[in-house]
Structure formats: structure tokens, C-alpha cells
Amino acid sequence: MVFRVTGHRMRRAFMSGDGVRVPLRYFRLQTMSTSTTRTTIDRAKHVAVVYFHGMGSQRRQEELCQLVDALDRFAFSHDMAKEVSTEESAEKDSAEKSELNRIEVRVETPHADREVPEHLTSDVSYIRTNFRQTNDDGKTSHIRRVQFYEAYWASATAGGVPAMEVLRWLLGRIPNPIRSLRTRWRLRARLRRISLRRMWSCMLNQPSSRTYLSDLVAVGRNWKLVYHRKWAELLHKVRLSRPRPLTSSHLEALLFAYHDFESLDARRKYPTGSFKQFQHFLRERLSEDPRWMKKPQDIKRLLNMARRWRTRYVLGEMATLFVLLTFALTLALAVGGVFAGAWHLVNYLMPGSIARDMSQTDKIQNALYVMAAFLTLAGVYGFLQNYMGDVLHWTTLAETDERFKKREEILKAGTAMLRHVLLDENCERVVVVAHSLGTSIAFDSLLELGRYNWARNPEAPMECGPKVLPLNKIEHFITMGSPIDLTHYFFESNAGGSHRYNRVSDKMRGDLAAAPFGKNRKPYVHWINLWDKSDIISGPLESPTPAIEAELNIDNCEVASYLFPFPRSSHSAYFENEKAIDIIYQSVFHRAFSFKTLTAGPGKQGINYTSQYVGPGDSRRTTRPQQLLVLALPWLLVASGLCVKVGWIPYTYAIAAVGTPALVLFVSLLCSWRLKIQPRLR
Fold it and tell me: I need a surface site. Which of 16, 286, 406, 626 has the fewest CB within 10 A?
């Protein structure tokens, strides 16, 4: 006998024995007899989805069930809400309907590893479902089996870390922007490249304003042609004055120059390694390169891009410092509010206290202030203890630290589950999905498997063989709310005075050029990063990109789940965002956005990998102003209090200075309360 647990959607119902219509939204336990037909179905090929959960005290398979439920709801709503524009599309939409049926939990024994026979000590449970497409007449046209696994790592961080220890650890990260600004330009290479790639993406996504300004300048210089109404000649000169579109060769020139600026020859000639010396090195390199020496305008553009690169980097570090100081100030105000409330309470209970003579309004104001401070302090305390403790365990990279053992256990849990899935002969394709801190764990786990193959087959780590893992099964890597750039910025970046140590550590760290993400300097696994501007933990990822290859990029796709920037709610709302679930749904069940399905174009065009990109996504313009108002509130509160104390402004002006942005935020919060953004279905 085999026990099967089946999950059903709320739209289905059955008639009970007493005639009552009961919705099948609960799990029910069934007994089934094993048969030859059933065994044949179990041996069918399937698609495996490996999910890495986020930080916090997660329960086993809780987030995995949320993912399956979200895909199940989307499969039903996708058919019910299709927009029919033409008769042909109407016939196509009505021809097939998709659904997930036979959702059940299964258990299997660990697959034998080639070198470590017992890499998993217990049986592996997973959720299995059939993706079925049916015609109008009810006949099944397509069935695909999908198995969902979870790389559960929360048990490795059991016990947590004291909140005060985590707080001291976080406060020690506040001077990091100052350290970064004081570091020589050739050091902290990944942080510099992050700023360069983000600036590059902004320049490519916003070319219209520069073209419009160049047209105005060209018209002003040729005003005589306007006066004589020589429109054809004027249009020709305007077109010639427009800047040529940027290509990947411009980015590659800067990346190659910055990579070689850290070489031994450049260190001997430019020992200081400052940005000024990098400019001299870049000008000298471009003037000697035959590809650029005959293009003085492009050399000038590259030098201007380098200056903009440094300006953007400095501004980014100052913005990061402002956010960190705001966090420290908010925490100090919360602690001060709690102590002030305790002092007022002691004075009120003492006989002959002055606090007894306070008016009713002052008492209410003090009570509200103490309550807000206490709630803020309690929220920060819970966040530090339940969430940031996992970050502390994972980002401990010093092998001499005791917490490094916790990191090894977390990494072992991730690699063990991936090994188990890859060694299944019936698994034909793997999709890795991760959320929050699980994205960093999944990334390092995949790189660890890539190093495993690299050590056994250095020439071709992605090729199948008897001694290596079949990493070619992995086609998609989907991350949601990923803090990989933040963890690298605060915990993994180092100054590194040794040239050889910098090169070796960067090579061993791995990037998109390493297996399984890259093959022969070309992308192999499609990395889709879903991020929300309201989610302060997430962002567009750039740190895993390689030092030289400009074509190896992460497909950053922005989504928006709330009209108001709720940090915590936006971080956990990816499963409720239709666009995010649509991307996962298409990748898992339809093999969409896969690089392996692409073919080379005619001639020397090659493979167009960007045709499979889903980014840059949708953005909301009101998110940044709202976040700036939130960051400005603690500083306005302190500044208003000091001005009132000194006597520069009246008390009513101070209330207006703080109350106006608070009122704006409160009104926007009321307008968007429980209101989510619903992206249109694909």
C-alpha cells in the first residue's frame, strides 16, 4: 500500500454522503495499491524544481507549498483570464486548457553519489504534480510531470544568535562606505564593476534625453540654415551630430582596462593605484590600441564614461552611508524613547513628582511617543534575532571562526539536494528557484558543484562523463528578493594588498563565467533575478558578473507588488505577484526563456541571448520619493528638536516640519492599504 496526499483547488468540490457540497481545499489521505501501470508512470521523465527558502525560522516545505499553490492558482487563472484579440487566437486559447492535477507528496531514497555514497542521510520527500493540457472535448493533449524539492537549511542555524551580538556586528558595518571611499581605485574590484555595470544599464535604457539635447545643440550651431530654411542640409547635420549608439565594445574596453590596471606591470608603473593614475593608464592604453587609436571621439567618450563612473561610485557610497546612519539614528531614537518613558514613569510614581502636574495633552503625547519607540525597538529586536542571525552565520567567511562550521552545514545541505536531483536518471531538466538569503546559498551551491566538475574534468566541466555531475540539466536559475550584492558589499569585499591573492580569491569565488552558469565564455544557465524597489533587501544584481566578459549578464526584472513601499511585505510578496509567478510558470512548464533552445542566426550573427530576457520589468515612480520621506523623518525630528531647544524656530513650526511628510506618508499608506499592483497576464 502507498499513501498519497492530494491537494485540490478551491474551485473544485465534491458531494459528501449526506448531500452537502464541500470544497476540496484541504489535504486528504488516500490509500492506493501499487500496480504495474503505476510503476511505469513513476519512471517517466520529469522536470525537477529545487527551491531554496529564505531566512528566518522556516518550517520544512512551508515555502515550497506556497510556491506550488501559487503556480496552481496561476494555471487556473491564466486560462480564465486570457484576452482574445483575434479569431485565430480565440480558437487557440479555447483549444487547450492547462491545469495541475494529482498534486501529491512522495518519498524516495537518496540517489547514490559517485564519490560520496551517503551524501544524504535520510529519505527525500518531494511534491509531485502533473501539468496537463486538455482540449475542449476533454481529451488530454500534453502531460508533463514536475517534481518540487526543497533544499532545507534552516536546521543548520538552530539556536540563533543573541540580538545584541548581531546588533554590534551590524553597527560595525556602518563605516564600510568610508573605508570603500578611502581604498585605492584598483582595489575592491567587484564593487567598482557593480557601479560601472549599473551606470551602463542606465545609459542604455535612457538614450532619448541625450539625443534630444544633442539635436538642440546642433540646431543652435547651424542657426543660419534655419534662417535660410535649408531643412534638408540642417537635418543632415543634426543626424551627424548625434552621438553614435553605445555598444558592448565600449563596456568591454573599460572592463579590460580596469582588469589590466591591477596587473603586475601596471602596479609597477602606477604604484599608487588612484583614479587619476587609472585615467592616465586608460588614455595610454586606448591610444596604443589599433581598434581605438583612429577613433579620437570614442576615446574621449570612454574617458568621460570613466569620470562618470567614479562620480556615480562616490555618490552611491554617500547614499549608502546616509541609509546606514539613518538606521543607527532610528535605533538610537527608539532606545532613547524607551528610556525616556521609563524615567517619566518613575517620576510619576514617586511622591511629589512634577510629572503629576502635566496636562492631559502632554501625558497623551508622552504615552504615544513611548509606545511608538517601544514598538520600533521590539520590531528591530525581533528582526535582528530571527532574521539577521542567519545572515551572520552565512556571511562568516573566516575559517578560523566557529560560525564557519554553520556555513559549511548550510552549503552542504544545498549541494546535497542538488546532487540528489542531478543524479536522477529520469530527470531531464532542472529549474532552481530561490528567495531572499536562499539566493546566495543557491548561488554558492551551484558554484560548488561547478568546482567539483572543474577538479575532475578541467578542460570541459560542463560535459557529461562518468566522474562529473550532469550540470547541463540546469537551464534556469530564478532568484527573488536577492541580497547577493549587499552581502558581497558588506561582508565579502576586501582591500587585498597582494596582487596574486586578489586574482586567486576572485577566481575561486566564481562568477557567471564559471560552470554551470557559463560555457566557453558564453551564457548557459539563464539567471532571472526578480526584484522590487520597495524591497530594500533586493536590487538588480551585478556582483556575480565576470571581470571581462560583457555578454555574461544577469537578467534583472523589476516587479511591483504594493503601491506603498512596505519593506517586509514587498520582500515576501513575490509568490503573490502575477508577473513573478508567470515567469516561473513559463520557465518550469513551457521551458520558456531557455538559452539551450536558441539557434545561431544567419551568417556571423551568432546567438542572440538577449531575445530570451524578461527584464528590465516595470517600475513605479512614486516609490523613491516615498522612501526618501521615510528616511528624512528621523533627521527632521532631531533637527526640529534641536532648533526648538536653541530657540531658532517656534514649537508649531517644528510640528509642521515633521508632521507634513508624516501626513503625506500616512495618506499614501491609507490610499494603498491592502492594495496590490496586479500586472497583466502574459
Answer: 16
Beta bridge partners of 48: 147, 430
All three cell numbers of 326, joined, read: 539613518
* DSSP SS3 for 319: helix
Cβ atoms within 10 A of the Cβ of 338, count?
16
Mean per-residue pLDDT for 81-93? 42
Largest CA distance in the chain: 94
- Per-residue pLDDT at 71 exceeds 50: yes
Give tens-digit pLDDT for 571-621: 888 998 889 999 999 999 999 999 988 887 776 667 888 889 998 888 788
* 523 φ/ψ angles, rounded to the nearest 5 degrees: -70, 140
Highest mean pLDDT among 397-401, 553-557, 636-640, 660-664: 553-557
Give residue 38's pLDDT. Answer: 38
Highest mean pLDDT among 168-177, 398-407, 417-426, 503-512: 417-426
**Residue range 349-396, pLDDT digits in tens:** 555 555 555 555 555 555 555 555 555 555 566 666 666 777 888 888
From residue 74, give the alpha-carbon distance in Å to each of 69, 100, 142, 336, 576: 8, 10, 18, 48, 10
Q: Are strands 427-435 and 526-532 parallel, antiparallel or unpaired?
A: unpaired
C-alpha cell at 233: 542640409
In 3-state terms the chain splits into helix, strand, coil percentages (rounded to 5) of 55, 15, 35
Q: Are 366 and 341 in contact (CB under 8 A)?
A: yes
3-23: per-residue pLDDT in tens? 344 443 333 333 333 343 333
Q: In this predicted structure, what is the pLDDT of residue 234?
A: 73
Residues contacting residue 367 through CB under 8 Å, at least 6 positions apart: none
Q: Which of 49, 70, 59 is nearest to 149 (CA)?
A: 49
CB atoms within 10 A of CB 457: 16
Residue 54 CA, chain-centre distance (Å), reads: 12
Distance CA 574, CA 580 (A): 6
Q: Assign residue 106 a region: left if phi > 0, alpha if psi is -120 to 50, beta otherwise? A: beta
Q: Which residues contact 266 (CB under 8 A, 6 or more apart)?
A: 186, 260, 281
Q: Pairing mode, if any, of strands 427-435 and 474-480?
A: parallel
User: With the CA atoms of 290, 294, 300 and 302 taken in that order, what torsion angle do they form, in degrees rounded to the nearest 10?
Assistant: -30
Give the whole-angstrom CA distance, residue 411 versus residue 674.
37
- Of 538, 553, 546, give the one whose Cα is nearest residue 612: 553
Which DSSP category does 293 fall into?
T
User: Residue 539, CB half-sphere, CA atoms under 13 Å: how many?
Assistant: 15
pLDDT at position 34 over 50: no
Is 413 within 8 Å of 156 (Cβ atoms)? yes
Cβ-based neighbours of 278, under 8 Å, separated by 6 or more: 185, 186, 257, 258, 261, 270, 306
Give the three-class secondary structure for 105.
Answer: strand
CB atoms within 10 A of CB 417: 25
Mean pLDDT of all residues in 140-151: 85
